[in-house]
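QA checklist item 7 of 12: single-chain prediction sanity check.
[x] sequence parsed
[x] length recorded as 198
[x] structure emitted
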Amino acid sequence: MTAFLASLPASLVVGVISGFVASLFFFLWQRLFRPRISISPKIALASDGRNGAVVPRIKLINRARRDAYAVNVDVVFQWSRTGKAARGRTKQSDRLKVQKKYGTTRVYDSIMRRKFFDDEFDHCRRIRINNPGDGGLQEAWMNLQKEVNSDVTLVVKVTAEDSWSRVRKTFYQEYVSFTSGIQHGSFVVGASFDIEPM
């Protein structure tokens, strides 16, 4: 093996080693310097102080020591139905996931980085889920379940970009049902997902 390597041109050996080192560096870059966003495991349902309407909110916490840029929040309903083969035959084992968007995409410039001795908790953000029409989230959830005759899961998708490396990542949080996924109250202040009853 040593003799074989010695017979190769030095430029080729250097090129191979350089390529390997560059690939390893890129892999570590992607792993170490990427966003770290946590999404609340429950949705808080509380009245809006401005007009008294009951609105749903989630909470995001930036766990990284770097700001998160271009934060997009999408909320979709998701359920399964039986798939069909190319000629219209029903597949016995395959289940297709169907999604329906709820509301509009929320876009934020940034969520501040996690800092030591941060009394303002700027790395935490409470997000209001936009209502696309009449009724509320819980009503839309229940009506959709009746319409599709299937269990419907609410999925929150958060896409963010690391302010330093520019690496983007998408985070998901699923809420299996409105009975277990929604809690009446408001998120407490701080880096916690606790909900204080109203």
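[x] summary fact logged: The longest helix spans residues 10-32.
[ ] second reviewer sign-off
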